[in-house]
Amino acid sequence: MAQMTMIEAIRDAHDVAMAADDRVVVFGEDVGFFGGVFRCTAGLQEKYGKSRCFDAPINESGIVGTAIGMAAYGLKPVIEIQFADYVYPAYDQIVSEAARLRHRSNADFTCPLVIRMPTGGGIFGGQTHSQSPEALFTHVSGLKVVMPSNPADAKGLLLASIADPDPVIFLEPKRLYNGPFDGHHDKPLTTWKKHAQGDVPDGDDIVPLGKAKITREGADVTVLAYGTMVYVAEAAAKETGIDAEVIDLRTLMPLDLDTITASVKKTGRCVIVHEATRTCGFGAELLSLVQEECFYHLEAPIIRVTGWDTPYPHAQEWQYFPGPARVGDALNTVMED
Amino acid sequence: MSEQSKPLSLNVPEPGCRPGDTPDFSDFEIPRAGEVPRPPIDVAADDIRDMAFSIVRVLNKEGQAIGDWAGALTPDELRTGLRHMLTLRAFDKRMLMAQRQGKTSFYMQHLGEEAISCAFARALRPGDMNFPTYRQAGLLVAVDYPMLTMMNQIYSNADDPLHGRQLPIMYTSKEHGFFSISGNLGTQFVQSVGWAMASAISGDTKIAAGWIGDGSTAESDFHAAMVFASTYKAPVVLNIVNNQWAISTFQGIARGGVGTFAARGHGFGIPSLRVDGNDYLAVHAVAGWAAERARRGLGPTLIEYVTYRAGGHSSSDDPSAYRSGEEASAWPLGDPIERLKQHLITIGEWSDERHTQAEAEIMDEVIATQKQAESVGTLGDGKAPSPRDMFEGVYETMPPHLIRQRQQAGY
């Protein structure tokens, strides 16, 4: 065990995977010599050479497109899109190609590819450094979608994603890169190095895809969250005094529906929290599934607490970001019914 | 400013000829066969800039092979090439007819473009990988991919290797160096560069070939492919098949009516040239030259094949709505099969009688194969792939939600 930030844990996962398998190659904008704008690939080029870790032209479609070709050849590319907000030029390659290659070729060609991208707000990133586009990927057949919330999961889930035979969209909440964040932006940041969840196992232990984690056990209401919202939900439970069970989904696709339904059937209530905009967000799918699977156990309507249906603003950061007060209100509301 | 400002106007290029017009290719400059020299394999892009504006040609009007690019193929190889082109044409004819008869939903023929994929395939080695578009089936025919399997794919029957998941002609064969075809244009051009980069990363000796049509060069992925190929000196041959038409849109809309498609390689520092796409010998020679450059680690080559899409865009297209019906016969580079046939006759290695006989034999073989495929099934008739198959292969391991949906669907 070592104390690591999420950045160091992600870097460590790359290191472990690259040492174990020559086929793992890492590239993206500023990823090589410089080690990435968030330092997630620092030192990898020096250690593994320029043919294993290298800088790419500023062309997201080219980064993903070449990586698909590499994966078809037999390599395991782990590529970076500098911000999730900039993945859209590569959307055709991801949706039309990476996601469908196995199915359309009947596995003659496959696409074992990991596309990492920093995501989420809470950093005054404005419109194009704050978005949470996970629903654009969970909607696509053939993709897996992962979002860790702490350093140990970041490492273990990234290792699992690299080992996975199918394309994985790996969303990294950049607000959590250096320490946990519960939405109380006026309080000082606690670094992961002083946090229990900063303990990261050595070696190649994976955290399996498709398995959620109950981060706070409770009896009154189930909160479904992922990424930064896990800490916001925990804070809201503590501040309202409501005995909420907080589930960190970790993998959005494939989803751990069993853990979700077991919890909601126990609590009878459900609040869904995500940073992404509301309409057709991933919360809508979660709400539908809970409604379908747990209808007769529900004692109150399911509530979603999400970003508003607006582009992510700059000055209004904390009025947009679904903080502990808004989540707390939802917990109180769902308990009143 | 003394000059009076005039209202601006938008330039929208128009083809020279529309339905009812008489085709006129008098402005189309065609160098004589043998006129363009063959540069050394390690030539710098800057030293052959003029090749992007000329056309490498080997066969002259008399059917003789002329110049530096001639002489690589034996008479047996030439006859094999002719057989491949005749096979592709006969295959197209039968499959287009099968579509008209309702035996499948869709087909796209190669009429007039047979030389390009058939000759190119013979310049690659086993293990090399093509990233084709939907109009390079010659890459399969020329490496003896089973025609029966192609037909089974077109009919989406129980023996379709893709289990009915793909639209007809979207073939796949890793073993035959033929990457899975996608309906999304241009995507595979940049993937070919990535495959070539992977070969280089792995210290391999295999090369990749990317394919794109004239219209699709306007896609962003064309630019992406050129940037990445140039930056990493990827061992890839980048092929643009300029058949003058993108469905109803003439190539000037993609190209701005100026320069050539090959000339686009100049900005990326990629050695770029044009070749007579209806000249089997020229295509084979240029392909071999570019493949050799890639294999020796000398980097990418961009090739523009100048040809003409003599058929409709697809079985869903009627070209008489947007171009002259006489345009194909007026096309100055002629027909690839006729030209290779004439060459073989000129060198005393073929005859009209042998040609007629070969055509008949090939058509018999195609028809016999077609009967075999149809005995398995056609679209919606006979043995079909299992509905269960649509749920398979979305992921390596079927996730719980798909298992539920499959059960819900009753399979």
How would you characterize this protein structure?
The complex is a heterodimer of chains A (337) and B (411). Chain A contains twelve helices and 14 strands. Chain A has a seven-stranded mixed beta sheet with strand order 3-2-4-5-7-6-12, sandwiched between helices. In chain A, strands 9-11-10-13-14 form a five-stranded mixed beta sheet, with helices on both faces. A two-stranded antiparallel ribbon of chain A has the order 1-8. Chain A is 35% helix and 18% strand. The termini of chain A are far apart. Chain A is globular. With 337 residues, chain A is an alpha/beta fold. Chain B is of the alpha/beta class and 411 residues long. A five-stranded parallel beta sheet of chain B has the order 1-2-3-7-6, with helices on both faces. In chain B, a hairpin with a 2-residue loop joins strand 4 and strand 5. The model of chain B has no long low-confidence stretch (mean pLDDT 96). At the A-B interface, helix 3, helix 4 and helix 5 of A face helix 5 and helix 6 of B.
